[in-house]
Design brief:
Largest sheet: 12 strands, mixed
Protein name: Fumarylacetoacetate hydrolase family protein
CATH architecture of the largest domain: Alpha-Beta Complex
CATH superfamily of the largest domain: Fumarylacetoacetase-like, C-terminal domain
Strand content: 35-45%
GO molecular function: acetylpyruvate hydrolase activity; metal ion binding
InterPro entries: Fumarylacetoacetase-like_C, Fumarylacetoacetase_C_sf
Keywords: Hydrolase, Metal-binding
Oligomer: single chain
CATH class of the largest domain: Alpha Beta
Number of domains: 2
Pfam family, one: FAA_hydrolase
């Protein structure tokens, strides 16, 4: 297995590469994983989300245990929505409550697939080859907005706010998800602990089937859906998501600040 991360350097540039010990071995980009020869000390770098996806494909009802709890049929094709790129934050960054929303905010701990090659209409073998690696995702939701309008479920609005897609802390290539479990804690108390093998659609199946609907680009993330144990986050509470072999993604929900400036997207070089 290899661990890949993305950082901001002291001069404000973005660097991406393979982490070994306390050093980053820089590569051109996720889409062009060619070593530059530069080796940088992690002490001089600021961690970012490990990729800059153009889109996040977020699955719903992709675990047998959750389908049974909700009394929903197991889908025959991945059920998904899209989260915008501006919703992505990295480990340690605050989840920001929207200024004009006082309702329930929900965490969802998920495995994330990071795409490494452009793919469209790919078969299972090609789909497996297109997976760069795996990361962690907290698919945050403003739950009270979903059915605010009885005529139109607002999935994208409820899940698309800035900071509502926590990704990180790293991408791990060569990771065997089949025997792994995902653990979510809220302020240190276990809330989710489920086997990834309970997925309805495997990662390769997800990539293959979703690529029949839309083109997947390098850096795009597929959030594989969550299982039982989803719950709400109070202002000031901290959610940590862990998969052994990938790491821990930790973020805290901050209260809304009416005088807070709008968060601008990453304008530096995207890698």
């Amino acid at each position: 297995m290899q661990t890949w991360m993305r950082f901001m350097s002291g001069d404000g540039g973005i660097v991406f590469g393979r982490v070994e010990g306390a050093y980053l071995h820089e590569y051109e980009s996720l889409a062009q994983p060619v070593a530059t020869g530069a080796v940088l000390s992690l002490r001089a770098l600021t961690p970012l989300a490990p990729c800059a996806p153009g889109k996040i494909v977020a699955l719903w009802n992709n675990y047998h245990a959750l389908a049974a709890k909700l009394d929903k049929p197991v889908p025959t094709h991945p059920l998904f929505l899209l989260k915008p790129a501006a919703s992505v934050i990295g480990a340690g960054e605050p989840i920001r409550r929207p200024r004009h929303y006082a309702g329930k905010i929900v965490y969802e701990g998920e495995l994330g697939i990071v795409i490494g090659k452009r793919c469209r209409d790919v078969d299972m073998q090609q789909a497996e080859a297109a997976i760069f690696g795996y990361t962690l995702v907290n698919d945050v939701t403003a739950a009270d907005l979903l059915n605010e309008n009885p005529h139109f479920p607002q999935w994208c609005r409820a899940k698309g706010f800035d900071t509502f897609c926590c990704v990180g802390p790293a991408i791990v290539s060569g990771f065997d998800w089949r025997a792994a479990r995902l653990l979510t804690t809220l302020d240190g108390v276990e809330r989710q602990n489920y086997p990834l093998a309970d997925m309805v659609f495997s990662p390769a199946e997800q990539v293959s089937l979703i690529s029949q609907d839309l083109t997947l680009e390098p850096g795009d993330v597929i959030a594989c859906g969550t299982s039982v144990g989803v719950g709400s986050i109070r202002d000031g509470a901290t959610v940590s998501i862990t998969i052994d072999g990938i790491g821990t993604l930790t973020n805290t929900l901050s209260a809304a600040k009416r005088d807070e400036p709008q968060r601008l997207g990453d304008t530096a070089k995207v890698v």
